[in-house]
Automatic annotation (TrEMBL):
GO molecular function: allantoinase activity; dihydroorotase activity; zinc ion binding
Name assigned to this protein: Dihydroorotase
Binding site for Zn(2+) 1: 60, 62, 152, 305
Keyword Magnesium belongs to the record: no
Organism: candidate division NPL-UPA2 bacterium Unc8
Length: 435
């Protein structure tokens, strides 16, 4: 089936393109890009005044299937992704069973094929059962198609195991993604250590917990070689460490998540458990440093760390609630907020959710090059939405942004040439009605 997107502003950071063009999609691929492509009976969608971006990529999500289908499934998680403008997700291995074997990888592939509204690329675990003790069969995992390995959720505390993981992954040309928090320093911490933790009477986690793990992993990477990607940076010290390592030519990349540049630890003052994340929300200075890191290119990627939890799990005392918030359906407007603030321009912002994660994961994606898979996200920069508890596609509702008015939404998501999400605005236009 052919589809013609008419008159949008095409921004493709992978090729430095920013101009008004039509895009013709044919048999799941981008067939042609140019001004005034004549239409010959194919379906036409008018996207004038909209941004046409390569399909968005989120390299850090938790889809909970297998094991906790109460909170999310591959079907609902990918639907949430499509609604949020994402076409490609890399999912973390902390499922039950863990993604530490080829059968679980095969299960995720087959569920995605059956029910997925986005492509899902599994990330295998570094250690068996995420226990931090014995390395998983990385060769087998690589063979079955994982895009990286990670023990996300916690750090591998044993330096020797982490060193061997990096060496082994290097041999297999696998990316290692590391959650950096030395928990021997914050075993009871539930929020950032500082004024708000003291005034709320909650146990704090110092930023040093993260910085120590970042510094150690960069040092181990120097020893081993290979490639390391540091997940969800939250504080100024980590940004400085990565910036300095990159200056020295070390092969390290990193990401942050929208909540780390949008919220501070003050957001916890109502004890809303949806603000409880790992690493925790930090103070103002850290938020400023994260923005600086995004702006100067130290932080390569923005990923959601979408972490669904059921109301039963979250509606408990702050100390007892699990860590994590959902993010797929609120990420794009929060990222676009950075362009309105002047932290990033539109090209830079989109690069962090298209081209950069594609490059780091070595994927054939994140581009609108002619001949590539037709993964496209159409964005309305003006569209405003009030986030409502009942409007999520995700099975979970653990978002601290409920009640917020957000601006800049995906109005059309196309994955492999297929429409996976379309807003009412676009639907009405297609039927010839006006808003
Ligand atoms: Zn993590």
């Amino acid at each position: 089936m052919k589809l013609l997107l008419k008159g949008g502003r095409v921004i493709d950071p992978s090729r430095g393109v920013n101009r008004v063009s039509d895009i013709l999609i044919d048999r799941g691929r981008i067939a042609e890009i140019g001004r005034n492509i004549p239409h010959k009976g194919e379906r036409v969608i008018d996207v004038k005044g909209k941004i046409v971006s390569p399909g968005l990529i989120d390299m850090h999500v938790h889809l909970r299937e297998p094991g906790n289908e109460e909170a999310e499934t591959i079907e609902t998680g990918t639907r949430a992704a499509a609604r949020g403008g994402f076409v490609l997700l890399a999912c973390m291995p902390n499922t039950n069973p863990t993604i530490d074997n080829q059968d679980t990888v095969a299960f995720i592939h087959s569920m995605t094929k059956k029910k997925g509204a986005a492509r899902v690329l599994p990330i295998g675990s570094i250690t068996k059962g995420l226990e931090g003790k014995e390395l998983a069969e990385m060769g087998e995992l690589k063979g079955s198609g994982v895009v990286a390995v990670s023990d996300d959720g916690g750090v591998i505390h044993n330096c020797d195991i982490m060193r061997h993981a990096l060496e082994y992954a290097k041999m297999l040309e696998l990316l290692v993604i590391s959650h950096c928090e030395d928990e021997t320093l914050n075993i009871d911490g539930v929020m950032n250590e500082g004024y708000w933790a003291t005034s709320l009477g909650l146990a704090g986690t110092p930023t040093a917990s993260e910085e120590i793990a970042v510094a150690r992993n960069i040092r181990l990477l120097e020893l081993s070689g290979g490639a390391l990607h540091i997940a969800h940076l939250s504080c100024a010290g980590s940004v400085s460490l990565v910036r300095e390592a990159k200056k020295r030519g070390i092969n390290v990349t990193c990401e942050t998540a929208p909540h780390y540049f949008t919220l501070t630890d003050e957001a916890i003052k109502e004890y809303n458990t949806n603000t409880k994340v790992k690493p925790p929300l930090r103070g103002k200075k850290d938020v400023e440093a994260i923005k600086e890191g995004l702006s100067d290119g130290t932080i390569d990627v923005i990923a959601t760390d979408h972490a669904p939890h059921t109301p039963e799990e979250k509606e408990v005392e702050y100390e007892l609630a699990p860590f994590g918030m959902i993010g797929l359906e609120t990420a794009l407007p929060l990222i676009l907020g950075l362009t309105r603030e002047g932290v990033l321009d539109l090209n830079e912002a989109l690069a962090k959710i298209t081209n950069n994660p594609a490059r780091i994961l070595n994927l054939d994606g994140g581009t609108l090059k002619v001949g590539s898979t037709a993964d496209i996200t159409v964005i309305d920069l003006e569209e405003k939405v009030i986030v409502k508890k009942d409007s999520f596609q995700s099975k979970s509702r653990n978002s601290p942004f409920i009640g917020w008015e957000l601006q800049g939404m995906a109005v059309l998501t196309i994955c492999g040439g297929k429409i996976t999400s379309m807003s009412d605005q676009v639907k009405n236009k297609l039927c010839g009605r006006t808003k």
